[in-house]
Design a protein that fits this description.
The chain is mostly helical. It is found in: Endomembrane system.
Length: about 325
Amino acid sequence: MTTHSNDKPLFPVPLAFIVGIIGISFSAIFVRWSEAPVAVTAMYRLLLTNLIMLPFLFKYTAEIKAIRWKSVFGLIGSGLFLALHFLLWMASLSYTTVASSTALLTLEPIFVMIGAYWLFRQKNSWGTVIGMLIAMIGAAMIGWGDFRFSGEALKGDLLSIVSAAAVAVHMLLGKTMRQSMSAFVYSFFVFLAAAAALGVYNLAQGTPLTGYSQKDWLMFLLLAIVPTMFGHYLFNWLLKYVKAATVSMSVLGEPLGSTVLAFFLLGEAITGIQIGAGFLLLFGIWLFIRSQGRKGKDEMVATPAVPAPLPEIPEERTGASRPSLTDS
């Protein structure tokens, strides 16, 4: 069943954002609780997600058969960059704090916005840019006290930055493909490609694929369900209805969510500056969404691939030329 660009969302888009942000905020917690190598954790996280989705795959048989080779390469490419993101970001948590690592991930919207302008010529209002910058400042302030510019912490911070660039490429590829492919099919094969890439990496490194504790397997499963199904899958679904840059803004909520969860579950301290930064971050996100205005509402339903014919408008009656399909 191939979806069409004019399909309406099954449930409110803002709700999907909130659930997705909460979902990805748990990712750092589960990674910290696992004692398995990060590449193994990432691989099993995705493989278990595929197993969860597998029973429902038969419903999309017609759509899968219609996939062309160009789309196959796109799915593989998106999966490779997702694998690179997971590998680098999870590795960063071994060198730096949750607050610092997730705060640096907020560079993702900048990378996505630059890529969207370069590839799709997508422009944004000044209000949108200002809102994003305010949110990024708030997110950076959350992790500021944990930033280190030397030693292992610097290595973790650099890994987090490169992982943000990788997931930005994954997001831009997804935006292109989601216009003609369902979220389920796109997510299933991207997760599979990413898991395969991580599997090859683990084999090349000689990393054991078995012998992990029950606690580790529980973390793999929780990572599959909470931040992947209720996080990344929802964001893949959103790519059809809003800009890639708008979806990438959701990552700005992760430092706040992860820091709060790390306080309660990992015992990491929260400072007064971080609390104030949290309010600044939320204000920036609110300003970003508000600045989208009518344009943001129009994005909820993308332009149909085959536009419906315009009604005939007698020029002698209106005295005006027929409107163009590109008028907004």
